[in-house]
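User: Can you help me understand a structure? I only have the sequence.
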Amino acid sequence: MRFLAIDSRIDYREGKAGLLLISSNYVGCIPLRSPGNGKKYADLRCEMRYGDNIGELISLLGDSIEIEYAHWDLNRPSQFRPPFYLLSLQAFEAYRDAMANPWHKFRDVKETRDTPEGDTDWTEYSIMSADPTNRMRFANRLSIQAADHREWRSLQALISDALNKFNSSSVPPNIRARYQRTLDYIGRSLPKHNSEKIPRTYRHNSLDPPKIKRLKEACNELLDASRMNQHSWRRYGDGV
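Assistant: Let's start by predicting it. Here is the structure, written out as tokens:
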């Protein structure tokens, strides 16, 4: 129970001994195992002190949202996943930070220029130059740096999908209202038409900038949630 910082002690009431659990500032969920055989038999869920809506935790988080995971599979993950909109807010925050420093990557482009540059397609040139008017036209394959590349558009596609879900009626209105300015800002930054496919997972690259690594991690958590993430999780909040 250390993951949720739960203190346990033996408590005696009316002549009977029982186990007293004392929560801390975490909400989340962990599996319980049988002391006899070590098998999972139930899940322990820590919720808000008042009420049973974990979404109310948003009002205590400030501007930072981060959910932590442990590699202990839950007994009934379908009922005890972190709310999807908490994961979405975490991804939105990472995306907003990543936009502050445009992510450039090299990509190959084919351009026709009046001088040979980069990797010139001489076979195509020999065919084109049969026409005297094309003798100064060279089909070049160039490697250029660009912020608008496939991997970035793929991340934008997932953020766009999460934004549409966040704006649906399934998210409490007070939560949408609190983050409306951020949602509008992100919405304006996304392309209106994005046909890039969303992968099953975003692969990490050692050359990725730190903010992109964080964005990929947040997006992977969103993808895991859509496939029923089975891991234990927690979120810290003062006054929980």
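Now, to help you interpret it: The beta strands are 7-13, 16-22, 26-33, 40-46, 68-73, 105-113, 119-120, 138-146, 231-236. DSSP finds seven helices and nine strands in the chain. Let me know which part you'd like to focus on.
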